[in-house]
Amino acid sequence: MSTETSFVTRAASLRAYASTADLAISPPAIHEVSDRARRIAASRNLLNEPRPIRFIIVALAISFLTIFVVLPLVVVFASAFSKGISAYLAALTEPEALSAIRLTLLVAAISVTLNLVFGVVAAWAIAKFEFRGKTFLITLIDLPFSVSPVISGLVFVLLFGAQGYWGTWLQAHDIHILFAVPGIVLATIFVTFPFVARSLIPLMQEQGTQEEEAAISLGASGLQTFFRVTLPNIKWGLLYGVLLCNARAMGEFGAVSVVSGHIRGETNTMPLLVEILYNEYQFVASFAIASLLAMLALITLIVKTVLERRLDEGQTPRDISRDDPSDH
Amino acid sequence: MSTAVARRSSLPGFGLTMGLTLTWLSVIILIPLAGLFLKTFELSPGQFWDILTSRRTLNALKLSFGLSFAAACVNLVMGTIIVWALVRYRFPGRRLFDAIVDIPFALPTAVAGVALTQLFAQKGWLGAPLAELGIKVAFTPIGIFIAMVFIGIPFVVRTVQPVLIDLDPEIEEAAASLGANRWHTVFRVILPSLIPALLTGFALAFARAVGEYGSVIFIAGNLPNVSEIAPLLIVIRLSEFRYADATAIAVIMLLASFLIILVVNRLQRWAQARIPVH
User: Fold this and answer.
1) Is any Cβ of chain A less than 8 angstroms from the Cβ of B25?
2) Which of A20, A214, A281, B232 is the most buried (most CB within 10 A)?
3) Contact with chain B for residue A306, Cβ under 8 A
């Protein structure tokens, strides 16, 4: 009841000042319209842009997004299917394509798992405890986001390459890191490092520590507390981080390109194969692989949207009950 | 405050998780990056200077930073327009276009690269009509600029969008009630309160464009001194086993991106100081 009255008073005051201002600026034609409609029109004029401007802004936004974002995506699928479905399927079942798909899945599985464990561990330390240098630590975790992918690959070449710090030692012991799967995994872990931790830290900070403390005081062990109390609370956020981490791990190009060595059938991931086939003018084959990665991106976006809604829902009741002094 | 600290430390696992975090962080991030900086110390300052001021390096850096700046400017303007349309207006397909903004984030860079090249190549859907107008996009610096605009747009939109959504409507109502016309309300009241977010989005888009590799190299043409971006020059120097050259360029680019992070952090602190705590 009270919210309704306050809405009514606010609407009334809004109409009052809108109509006074309207007298000064609106063209006389408007006075012929009924009083109520005129007031609404006036309030719209002052709190919204004129119709033609609104139209231009929406048209600009839609055409920009269509030309720069939608069209490239459409081109991928149009080019992939330009010679028909059979050519498309044939391109995807080439041994080279299959080995690239296998390698991409393997690299993503390893790097996402490792970053998942690290992300949870780091988020626990950062979100549940107070210590000096916390902001600095978060900045360090964020670092890979602001490093060029090429440089992310370069640092591993400098460590493990033939002229790198440990190159001669590795060669002497016949250990292959660069131009082999371990190098690709390392570079992928580097570029996807922040995703899980970054999606968990704000969530866990917001949730505070009361529930965990209650569990501990009731005699639960640390691991029990984590798996029975914390994990159910953070599961959507965790999934969100893993989802983005996986998308980047499968799609990474620059860093992997630097450390892979492009050995056909051995160290080519899907994005690298897209490049090689494109440079060999095998457009259908290149875009066939690219279409798989584009589908991965689209699925990621859809699941992300669903998860964001879940996260929003989860936050509303918690916001009311939270008393966390550390946030500001 | 001390009670809060004591209460917080009653949870177990701080030593273990902190230890693991620092170890993993060192192995994956800190040691490799330290290796990069150590490598530059193998160069004398004179050598370092010679590499950076060689014609090809200078041209690559100028191209990367210059075009990234131009692309970030376009992103700033178009990003603001897109945010405004998405937040303030209702139009058919609004939610779809809202989701579409994230595609440059989600699409693997190599896929974006080949797609943009195909689109803007001389026989492409957009390249053909542009070629008739005498504009060649693919394999020229214009192509690089287009790719940078593509990857930068979500940064501005996603940074500004939440701020515009949270903007208190009463500020606008007050401005309007005090006699400001819509033009004044938008440019004197609303846009100034978006400035920290706009600058943050601009800086993020700029930083991303400077380091971008995958979506740019296909459309770039990669002609030395003309359309060769700095990240590509690093890759070329590596393939020539000129590690020192690659490292010197990388260090300059890293320092630039650290500078940008610093600026972004300052901007965010500034933004927080400006917004009154409710």
Assistant:
1) yes
2) B232
3) no
